[in-house]
Write a structure and sequence with these properties.
Structural class: mainly alpha
Number of helices: 28
Shape: globular
Radius of gyration: 30 Å
Largest sheet: none
Number of strands: 0
Strand content: under 5%
């Protein structure tokens, strides 16, 4: 107590530090509130601990009130205090409360940043990243140019800002000027060109990389898969194996998806054998494995895997329900749907799409009706247009056109081309040419740049022998430069 460095606040700061770093964080807050009751004033060591606790607890309003207290105490110029305030506001802007805070130049984080007397490169990078996340690339570039000593993170952040808004030439210019590039720099450029559809340039960057890690390989492989170049994805995976790179769950999900699209069951099985302890891997791999076996025609293999996984999540159940339905095992799909609920899992909107699809293809009208109308009342899931579409298709397939028309009229959505197509299918079943004509008229009124609309509209005309109209729909698609989209997977 006799040393000149001792102060009454010091032991309190030690306790605040202990709670801030080791928890419980709430005790750090309680202890801080005790200070004025003991006649003690917090200093430049006290505030950072409590500000960091506020940040971790999400108590941003409390952090703002502390900011006012800091300004009154004259401690705002302290580096540790201002840095903690800055981190608090950065986290606040990224939180769910972001809508109540102004972004860009007027943000609280930017005000604290501008007032900081000392700004290490880490702080510059945080502010730069926030500007990039806000989509304010011009402001981000001004910040980037103002950084006195940039590090590789500064360069990578600015490059990502340009790639996010599709300014590849500016991103590449920065990349070429970088004094030091790391694996993140190269991988960012691969992803940027791949997202723009320029896989050849992406591959050139990949081949030029002085050092590649699993993330780099995954970026290139998944890009091939997303763009429908499945064989190239598998060829690159084989090269990855030859170079001794250890695959992770993202690698396996991408290549299994490629196998699914190609129907390459043997290749899919060989990849399965490479996966060690697959039941313990993430949902992405488990779901991709089940999906691969099902899409490659081995529904029994898919079901065996499904049973072996002790803790299936909702995604695995969804894939299994849909797969069984596609393979004509509709009653089993319905059973899986009810077993899922017994297992304690809550169905989501994809689950209902899958089970209604099963009902539609199995002719299970009453089961489908109960499921559709029980979605919101029993599970709190509001039916979407695709759910109504499945039930319209179910009714139409079973000749219940009047009920299907009534549903289309009463549902809270404007019918899309798929619903009109389902109704037309019912017209063919019943031979109702009068209704078919009205359906075609309504479908023709739809204006869309989606290729599926024009393809289905063309098929609708062709199905009733209207060949000139069918050809006209195709020609309009070509004139508008609308192309059919490649099939996609939810696992890559």
């Amino acid at each position: 107590m006799g040393t000149p460095f001792y102060s009454q606040i010091m032991p309190w700061n030690i306790m605040l530090r202990g709670y801030a770093f080791n928890g419980p964080l709430q005790d750090c807050m309680s202890l801080f509130h005790e200070l004025p009751r003991r006649g003690l004033k917090p200093d430049n060591y006290s505030f950072p601990y409590v500000l960091n606790s506020c940040s971790q607890l999400g108590l941003f309003r409390k952090g703002q009130s502390l900011h006012c207290q800091i300004l009154k105490s004259g401690l705002g110029s302290s580096f540790e205090v201002s840095k903690s305030l800055f981190s608090l506001y950065i986290k606040m802007q990224a939180s769910s409360e972001v809508d109540i805070w102004n972004k860009g130049e007027s943000s609280d984080a930017r005000k604290v940043f501008d007032d900081m007397l000392v700004k290490p490169v880490e702080v510059w990078n945080q502010m730069l990243y926030q500007s990039v996340c806000d989509g304010n690339v011009s402001s981000a570039r001004e910040l980037f140019d103002s950084i006195p000593e940039k590090d590789v993170i500064s360069w990578n952040t600015m490059i990502s800002g340009y790639t996010r808004v599709g300014k590849l030439s500016k991103a590449r210019d920065l990349f070429e000027r970088m004094p030091e590039k790391n694996v993140v720099s190269w991988t960012s450029m691969i992803g940027a060109y791949a997202d723009a559809g320029d896989l050849e340039t992406a591959r050139k960057f990949f081949e030029k990389m002085p050092c590649r890690n699993v993330v780099s390989w995954n970026s290139m492989i998944s890009s091939y898969t997303k763009h429908g170049r499945f064989e190239e994805a598998l060829n690159l995976f084989e090269q990855m194996q030859l170079e001794g790179i250890v695959s992770d769950e993202y690698t396996f999900a991408s290549v299994l998806s490629a196998c699914s699209h190609l129907g390459a069951l043997d290749m899919g099985k060989s990849i399965h054998y490479l996966i060690q302890d697959w039941p313990q891997l993430g949902v992405r791999v488990r779901t991709a494995l089940i999906d691969m076996y099902a899409k490659c025609g081995d529904i029994s293999g898919a079901f065996t895997l499904f049973i072996k996984i002790k803790k299936n999540d909702v995604f695995c159940w969804n894939v299994m329900i849909k797969s069984l339905a596609i393979h004509g095992r509709t009653k089993e799909a319905i059973k899986i749907f009810f077993l899922m609920q017994k297992d304690g899992l809550k169905p989501n909107d994809f689950t209902f799409t899958s089970v209604l699809f099963a009902c539609s293809h199995g002719g299970l009208v009453e089961e489908g009706r109960k499921i559709l109308y029980g979605m919101e009342t029993d599970f709190g899931v509001r039916p979407k247009i695709e759910h109504f579409g499945c039930f319209v298709d179910l009714l139409s397939r079973n000749g219940r056109l009047e009920e299907a028309q009534l549903l289309v009229k009463e549902m809270p959505y404007k019918p899309d081309i798929a619903i009109w197509g389902a109704l037309l299918g019912g017209c063919r079943v019943k031979g109702d040419l009068k209704l078919a004509k009205r359906v075609i008229e309504r479908a023709t009124e739809l204006e869309s740049k989606e290729s599926g609309v024009h393809v289905l509209l063309s098929n609708i005309h062709a199905s009733v022998g209207q060949w000139p109209e069918a050809l006209d729909a195709r020609e309009k698609m070509e004139e508008s430069k609308i192309t059919k989209k490649l099939g996609s997977s939810t696992f890559v």
